From TrEMBL:
<comment type="function">
    <text>Involved in coproporphyrin-dependent heme b biosynthesis. Catalyzes the oxidation of coproporphyrinogen III to coproporphyrin III.</text>
</comment>
<keyword id="KW-0274">FAD</keyword>
<dbReference type="InterPro" id="IPR036188">
    <property type="entry name" value="FAD/NAD-bd_sf"/>
</dbReference>
<protein>
    <recommendedName>
        <fullName>Coproporphyrinogen III oxidase</fullName>
        <ecNumber>1.3.3.15</ecNumber>
    </recommendedName>
</protein>
<dbReference type="InterPro" id="IPR050464">
    <property type="entry name" value="Zeta_carotene_desat/Oxidored"/>
</dbReference>
<dbReference type="InterPro" id="IPR004572">
    <property type="entry name" value="Protoporphyrinogen_oxidase"/>
</dbReference>
<keyword id="KW-0560">Oxidoreductase</keyword>
<keyword id="KW-0963">Cytoplasm</keyword>
<keyword id="KW-0285">Flavoprotein</keyword>
<comment type="pathway">
    <text>Porphyrin-containing compound metabolism; protoheme biosynthesis.</text>
</comment>
<dbReference type="InterPro" id="IPR002937">
    <property type="entry name" value="Amino_oxidase"/>
</dbReference>
<dbReference type="Pfam" id="PF01593">
    <property type="entry name" value="Amino_oxidase"/>
</dbReference>
<feature type="domain" description="Amine oxidase">
    <location>
        <begin position="12"/>
        <end position="444"/>
    </location>
</feature>
<comment type="similarity">
    <text>Belongs to the protoporphyrinogen/coproporphyrinogen oxidase family. Coproporphyrinogen III oxidase subfamily.</text>
</comment>
<keyword id="KW-0350">Heme biosynthesis</keyword>
Length: 452
């Protein structure tokens, strides 16, 4: 009998699950329910002065921890998409109003050799001493900031780790889980007795292939990845369809109630993958699962101006700016630059806890972005020839210590035939979300085979 599977959520995790389900069983009937009017979630390609510029994630890791292709690269190749890579350009940190090169040899800002900090941050003297026992007990999770402050001091956290983590999560090191955000370091901290030793051990375990670019992107934009995944999956896509209830029928199937309250629609399926943020997921599951989110905004601006020869820079929270990062897009991605055309800058604004600072009209937010960008690079930038603002309200999960254990407990209590996927549970980043969706597909496919 032909099986029917519902995927609630049409972001990259849900679509990766749909592709995997199609590969596992070409006859499966797959339905994707998406509450908004388009697929892709936070992957959205836009236009700026005639050039292709991402309004969400601009790239993904090229390699997995084992040295092979990342899950995102594997999916893109599976879909027949070409990849592009950023140019080798340095990046900087904004320290006391000036741009300084990011020190090399760090693991997400955590140095393994304190002599390489080049004056960017002064470590606490003699704090990283060998106490005769590992930094962490097996399975223990603490905040990144707690571990690094105790061992290296405040400046290393405030000037290096915070902006590096903030560039990915828009959060603060003192609130983010080590085990979720830096799993390699968490693993080596269970055996190493100094932080520098744990960092070096984590770096040694990395099987990065020499000469392979760190990052990749889909040629033509991330929207092509979304469209190709949806098409290849063969799933029926239902847009503007909020699934409001999830329950069981008398025969053991799953019943979904979706659509507007005055005229609800009902569907019955054999298995369900939930790939939505934490709050709607908890509501559908009827279980408690709290997760904070940070809101950010992106400002895209096209300038007729000369910019520093770098890929961009990060700004530590202590600098007090609304700008937390900037990418010199046409420098970082030269294949997008038009000869004689404008320089494209993409600025990220706002951090966790700063939602009130983003409550400005688009024009005012662009003015702040241009003024702070001018101050940081030391050049008065002209009015942009084209611009846009993209807001991602509640867009980035903030993983508090213990998050992985809470997710494991949640999954352990799920009935067979129901799986979870996506950033709310397994971490941010396109490869992580793709792998999460694929694992969920494997789980429900195994369940359906066992119940035939």
């Amino acid at each position: 009998m032909r099986k029917r599977i519902a995927i609630i959520g049409g972001g990259i995790a849900g679509l990766a699950a749909a592709v995997r389900l199609r590969d596992l069983d070409p006859l499966t009937d797959i339905v994707v329910y998406e509450r908004s009017g388009s697929l892709g979630g936070k992957l959205h390609t836009g236009d700026l002065d005639g050039l292709t510029v991402e309004r969400g994630a601009e790239s993904f890791l090229n390699s997995a921890a084992d040295g092979g292709e990342s899950a995102a690269v594997a999916l893109a190749r599976r879909l027949g998409l070409d990849l592009v890579h950023p140019a080798a350009r340095p990046a900087a940190l904004a320290i006391q109003g000036r741009l300084a090169p990011i020190p090399g040899g760090t693991l997400v800002g955590v140095p393994g050799d304190l002599s390489l900090l080049d004056g960017v941050a002064l470590p606490k003297a003699h704090a990283d001493r060998d106490t005769g026992r590992p930094l962490l007990a097996p399975g223990q999770d603490i905040a990144v900031g707690k571990l690094v402050r105790d061992r290296y001091g405040d400046e290393v956290v405030d000037r290096l780790v915070d902006p590096m983590l903030g560039g990915v999560y828009a959060g603060r090191a003192d609130q983010l889980s080590l085990r979720v955000t830096m799993p390699q370091l968490a693993a080596t901290a269970e055996t190493e007795r100094t932080l520098s030793g744990a960092v070096r051990a984590a770096q040694a375990r990395s099987k990065r292939v020499p000469g392979r670019p760190v990052f990749a992107a889909v040629d033509g934009g991330m929207t092509r990845l979304i469209a190709a995944a949806a098409a290849e999956s063969g799933a029926r896509v239902v847009l503007d369809a909020t699934v409001r209830e999830l329950g069981r029928t008398a025969t053991g199937r799953w019943k979904l109630i979706f659509g507007p309250v005055p005229s609800p629609q009902v569907d019955e399926v054999d298995a369900v993958i939930v790939a939505v943020p934490a709050a709607p997921a908890a509501r559908l599951l009827g279980r408690s699962f709290a997760l904070d989110y940070a809101s950010v905004a992106l400002a895209g601006m096209a300038f007729v101006a000369e910019l520093p020869d770098m890929s961009g820079f990060l700004v530590p929270p202590g600098e007090g700016t609304l700008v937390k990062a900037a990418t010199f897009f046409t420098t970082k991605w030269p294949h997008l630059a038009a000869e004689g055309g404008p320089a494209i800058v993409r600025v990220s604004l706002g951090r966790a806890g700063e939602e009130d600072r983003l409550q400005l009209a688009d024009a005012s937010l662009l003015a702040v972005a241009r003024r702070e960008l001018s101050d940081l690079i030391g050049v008065e930038l002209p009015e942009p020839v084209d611009s846009w603002v993209q807001r991602w309200g509640g867009g980035l999960p903030q993983y508090a210590p213990g998050h992985a254990d809470r997710v494991s407990e949640l999954r352990a209590g799920l009935p067979p035939g129901l799986a979870l996927a996506g950033a709310a549970f397994d971490g941010v980043g396109i490869p992580v979300c793709v792998a999460s969706g694929e694992r969920a597909a494997d789980d429900v496919s195994k369940f359906l085979k066992e119940t035939r």
